[in-house]
Design brief:
The complex is a heterodimer of chains A (91) and B (208).
Chain A lengths: L13 E6 L2 E6 L4 E6 H9 L6 H12 L3 H17 L7
Antiparallel strand pairs in A: 1-2, 2-3
Helix pairs in contact in A: 2-3
Chain B lengths: L16 H9 L20 E7 L2 E3 L9 H15 L4 H4 L17 H5 L14 H4 L11 H5 L6 H18 L7 H14 L1 H15 L2
Antiparallel strand pairs in B: 1-2
Helix pairs in contact in B: 1-2, 7-8, 7-9, 8-9
The chains are: A alpha+beta (91), B mainly alpha (208).
């Protein structure tokens, strides 16, 4: 699990493409394609090396008007998924 | 949006359901993405497929009753988007498109609806216009387009040149010139698997 103080960044082998309110992601080394929408797309935008996971949680909670605990649980799960798929740079 | 490749974050691609299905079938690079309504939904990563060789392999089965509609919409979308293959730009698809970019400021470019002027001509060297690759030394754009087979870099470069002509000709092409250059550079830096993935993506985008 990612620590809240860490500032995640995309893997250098990942290309992402904005598509209105959604994103398409390609991991060039594996050739795997993904899409994100809604909160997932917004979280990806915040994975820029400038925001730590707690700041991402706060942004999602505010922007989507949801409880912070729910946002924290969802963001944590989502970051773990991205990490398992090797879409994030190694810590 | 953060971007690891220097791609302009303002670039947008119009995606719709038809485009997604086409993407999954390997016939278009525009993935289907359902745009959210704004209500909160738990974030999820949707796996669309894997680029292998020439096709994008979809993990999602396609419904038979959607095929006819998809085909019609796909044909319309592709026509509107101005996507053309490498063969097209070599004049092998019934149009003399090879004459649209044979020289600098080629009159044929604009006469056939191209934006501005052609970005390069047949004799332009592939690099340094695009990031250099050892398999493409001293090759002209025409030489890159011409032929079949070859290394991962050769195959990807062939689609890249066609894609760049498409992007220059018609602003509705899904990738901008700057994006294509950045994608190429990224792929070169990551080796053959990345070049194969890029080739697959561009081939799907360029195909008619």
């Amino acid at each position: 699990m990612m620590e809240s103080s860490m500032r995640p960044t995309p893997s250098p082998s990942v290309l992402s493409r904005r598509a209105l309110s959604a994103l398409v992601i390609i991991e060039l080394e594996s050739g795997r394609y993904y899409s994100l929408d809604g909160a997932g797309a917004r979280i990806w935008e915040l994975i820029d090396g400038a925001h730590n996971s707690e700041e991402i949680v706060a942004a999602i909670a505010t922007e989507f008007r949801i409880d912070t605990d729910i946002a924290r649980a969802d963001v944590t799960d989502f970051l773990d998924t991205l990490q398992k798929e090797r879409l994030l740079a190694a810590a | 949006m953060q971007d690891t490749t220097g791609i302009d974050p303002k670039i947008e691609v119009r995606l719709d359901e038809t485009g997604r299905r086409a993407f999954l079938k390997g016939t278009a690079a525009s993935a289907v993405v359902i745009v959210g309504s704004g209500d909160y939904v738990k974030p999820a990563l949707r796996f669309l497929g894997v680029a292998r060789g020439q096709a994008l392999v979809s993990p999602i089965p396609e419904r038979e009753d959607e095929k006819k509609e998809e085909k019609e919409e796909k044909e319309k979308d592709e026509k509107d988007a101005g996507r053309h293959s490498s063969s097209f730009w070599m004049g092998k698809s019934g149009e003399d498109a090879d004459d649209w970019w044979s020289e600098s400021n080629d009159a044929g470019w604009g006469q056939h609806g191209g934006r501005g002027t052609n970005p390069f001509q047949h004799a332009t060297q592939f690099s340094p216009f695009f990031t250099a690759h050892g398999q493409l030394q001293n090759m002209t754009m025409w030489a890159v387009l011409d032929g079949s087979g070859g290394s991962s870099a050769r195959k990807a470069a062939r689609e890249l040149v066609a894609a760049y002509l498409n992007a220059s000709f018609d602003r509705r092409y899904p990738f901008t010139q700057a994006t294509l250059k950045a994608m190429w550079t990224t792929a070169v830096n990551h080796g053959d698997r990345a070049l194969d993935a890029l080739r697959s993506l561009l081939r799907a985008t360029n195909s008619n």
